[in-house]
Amino acid sequence: MSRYTIYLASDSLSFLEPESVTRLAASHFADHSYDIVKFANVRTSEKAQEIVTLAKQTPPSLLVFSTVLIDVRDTFIMKCLEQQVECIDLLSPFVKSLGKVLKTAPVHQLNYSWKLNDEYFRRIHAIEFAINNDDGKSLSALQKADIILIGVSRTSKTPLSIYLSYHSYLVVNIPLVGEESIPKHLYDIPRRKIIGLTIHPNRLNHIRSERNMVMGVGAESSYSDLGHIIDELEFAEGIMKRIGCPIIDVSNNAVEETAEEIMKIIKKPIN
């Protein structure tokens, strides 16, 4: 399995939102593993240059930065171009587009603090909840959750949880790998909160076979065996039908598309 490094640089102490976006993007490349290295309070051009140099020395790498400090931003961009380091400026494109919409120039506040309003804290709580309840089965988590995702392995449950949490939903995901994997409390949870995820057997076979190759697992593994996959999917869909929850086919969907579909379902009025 190839491995790469993502460097996160911020002019504040908070990495939660940049990191959640970064991890969501990285989830699209599940066959590659990565490390995240964080640099907080990056408020000088000298520090920015040090980070770019480090990224250059540890390929393959990506530098993601978020700053309102113009000198620091310009240093990141200039030095990344000079040293051929791939970088992403998280904040500037948004500010530029918003300026076009509002037909006004942004006010660059060098001494700023983010507004820590209720929405901000809800999002932080939701992201932490999703991370702590990846493969979660506790009764309290199921009761607190806004959305419970169920499905077999490799149906995008984890990246969906992170994406939805960024929209402030409390999400639990549960892998269905046999009767023993199903929390006994699940059938007592309101079915309007539960979303089943399924996938075409051939598509899942392809995904799991690639995963096995990367992990060095032999082709004879039942994990990627088509017959075993069909049995898994039939079992999982049987559970979903018993619960009576909506079922979404993720075979040809990007994470964002499936998430939008889930949010539409959750927002529908209850009959």
Give a description of the structure.
- The model is unreliable at 110-114 (pLDDT under 50).
- The termini are far apart.
- The protein has 271 residues and is of the alpha/beta class.
- The chain folds into two domains: 3-102, Rossmann fold; 118-267, Rossmann fold, CATH 3.40.50.
- Helix content is 46%, strand content 15%.
- The protein is built from ten helices and eight strands.
- Helix 2 runs parallel beside helix 3, helix 5 runs antiparallel to helix 7 (157-165) and helix 7 crosses helix 10.
- A four-stranded parallel β-sheet has the order 2-1-3-4, sandwiched between helices. Strands 6-5-7-8 form a four-stranded parallel β-sheet, sandwiched between helices.
- The radius of gyration is 21 Å and the shape is globular.
- Helix 1 links the parallel strand 1 and strand 2 (33-39).
- Keywords: Kinase, Nucleotide-binding, Serine/threonine-protein kinase, Transferase.
- Pfam families: Kinase-PPPase.
- This is Kinase/pyrophosphorylase.
